[in-house]
Amino acid sequence: MAAPLEEDLEGFSSNSDDYYAFLNVSKDATTDEINNAFRRLSRLFHPDKHYEPLYHEQAKKLFNKLINIRDVLNDPPRRAIYDTLGVRGLETYGKEVVLRGKSAKEIREEYERLLKQKESIDLIRSLIPSGTMKMSIDATDVFEESYDTYGERLPRHPRLTAFQLSHAVEARVTDCTTATVAGVLQTRNGTGAGMLQGSLRHILTPQSWIVASLGVGDTPHLKFAGFRTLGWKRLHSIMSGSIQCTSHGYHLGVNPSISVQLDKNLEGRMILDVPNILTDYSTPGHDHSSSSLKTELAWKNGKHSVTGTMALGIPDSYVKLAYVYFCQEEELKAKAAVQFGTMGPVLEYGVEKNITAHNLLGAYLHLGSKDGVLLKNQIQPREPAVYISCSAL
Asked: What is the distance between the alpha carbons of residues 211 and 206, in angstroms, rounded to a whole number?
């Protein structure tokens, strides 16, 4: 059977709280009417009928919601809670309400008491903190002999060249809006820097969202960015752009990307990153932001990942091959990468391991003609969910 038109999904939302309207039945619908509506919509929403990944994911959410609606409306106690209190009543200790309350008034009174109890717990859980600590150790002196003016050999030891501490707190303001406050303190080669940033991310549609951020510190800025995901069968594209106001002027950036799923484990990507299209690269001493066009070919299965990258950019162009091994039994990830480019060859390898249920520890050795030998250590929390991701410099 041919897959239904993808436009058929546009009229449905997985966030809808009106179960009866979703099924297109009346509030006094019988069990047979509810089951008939379920069978009709299941033929439309079944994920196997939608092959394009974007619509496949949307259909999966709608199909799961359809199953949940069928289960609620076919269960008299849960249906009574829904008819009296709505979806929030089902989410807030619904079983306790059923056991303790029977009439509509008793259900509502019990719900309000439990809701206050739950709100006090949610107030603590609504803030999602995360933090990262990174440091870089230069071990070049360990491999080079140095002598003082008297010919005595100087002691050889690594030195700390960079240290960074960042912390962020995220809070979901509404179902579609997330607020983040983040701070970064760092020092590199004896020079300190800091930044405090607040941002708002608002989801316009499942395929598009916007972000506004304000930062104060060494480089104050006001930034607006927009994102739009486009998808056709195995082809995906993300179009994004940003306007950034800093103490150095205006920055207009673009960052489109396109990806093609070649088979189950193989994906091809092309990424254009231009932080500021207004940059005049012909002007000596100008703040030349790094711009590049990357072409990537990535293969991944359950335990292994191999990615080849070719980048043409300003000021650096290179080719890179990276390998990652995932060991789920030991909760360990090993990485190795080799790179050849205009800035010289680079070799980096290291491991990451989950040291607790919420934290991981990483250590990497970086060898490059530009940077010398660097030992990088990193401690950070595991990502709690899908939220705004902030990358430190």
From this structure: 15
